[in-house]
Amino acid sequence: RLSCIRNNTWLASCGVLSSGLAVLSSFGLLLFCGVPFVVTVANAPFLILGVGVDDMFIMIASWEQSTRKKDKSSVKSLLAETYAEAALSVTITTLTDVLAFFIGTWTSFPSVRSFCIYTGTAFIFCYVYTLTFFGAVLVLNHKREQGNRHWLSCMRVGVDEDQAEKSCLYNVCCIGSCSGQPSQPESEHPMSIFFKKYYGPFLTNKWIKVLMVLLYGAYLGSSVYGCTRIREGIDLRNLAHDDSYIIPYYDDDEKYFSTYGPRVMVVVTESVDYWNETVRLGIESCAQNLE
After folding, report:
1. Same domain assignment for residues 72 and 209
2. Residue 225 shares a structural domain with residue 271
3. pTM surpassing 0.70?
4. pLDDT profile of the chain (291 residues), mean per 10
């Protein structure tokens, strides 16, 4: 926001901090419990950050809607209204993510199992921090706005009688603008107005609904086709523990034998009488032909 009071920079930063606290708490707990840490777990914080920021936006949007209602003036009423609107969405998102990753712990790959344990636990902590830590930050930010304080310096914004004698930097931090004129609080975000007055009515048009259904059908068909054409590929080195004996093997294999191309193997799927000399000669002849 352009308003020096309604700017939510610190609020957004605390939302990112909430995700970081969830990662630190969950990783610290699991490391304390002795759960193995593998290199693939290093990707988990990015997933937690994505879900945590999404939950943050849901909380802020619900808080903004609650503050516009005149009958919800007290902080308790505003926070109760916010949780009533946002907690259900946040809870469902967390439950589905946690369930998905904890199902992944059933895999036979130890590294994948560790990744799922760390990520699923981090989602639980992210949920807890969103409903506790970030909720408290919302209230503190609301009190700052109610006190007419600047978003950066938290100093009270207002016209100073001696502002002409003050520097431009002082006026920006304490009054809101270099000219000394206090900025007025904004009512509703322009993005909310766009979706409510223009985008929503556009999508509810019956012809647009038909077009959306057709586009979704085409998207679904292409997705099913893509799933049938997808090829599996994974670096087996990342599926082993850091201290596993197989890590040096993959390193040496890549260093010394990667230029020779893939290995060709022949599998005999039936019983073979290796004691018969004729059978052995036939196998050797087959190998020579392949070479």
Report:
1. no
2. no
3. no
4. 75 92 95 90 92 92 79 78 90 94 89 92 95 92 82 69 58 54 57 87 92 96 91 76 86 86 81 91 90 85
What is the Cα–Cα distance from 7 to 12, expressed in whole angstroms?
A: 10
Whether 20 and 139 share a structural domain: yes
**Position 91, amino acid:** T
Q: Is 98 found in the same domain as 211?
A: no
> Which residue type sits at 34?
G
* Domain carrying residue 278: 261-290
Residues 132 and 207 in one domain: no
Residue-wise DSSP of the chain: --STTT--HHHHHHHHHHHHHHHHHHHHHHHHTT----GGGGGHHHHHHHHHHHHHHHHHHHHHHHHT-TT--SHHHHHHHHHHHHHHHHHHHHHHHHHHHHHGGGSS-HHHHHHHHHHHHHHHHHHHHHHTHHHHHHHHHHHHHHTTB-TTT-PBP---TTGGGS-HHHHHHHTSSTTSPPPPPPSS-HHHHHIIIIIHHHHTSHHHHHHHHHHHHHHHHHHHHHHHH------GGGGS-TT-THHHHHHHHHHHHGGG---------S---TT-HHHHHHHHHHHHHH-
Contacts of 179 (CB under 8 A, 6+ apart): 171
Domain count, the chain: 3
Residue 131 carries which side chain, given as an amino acid letter? L
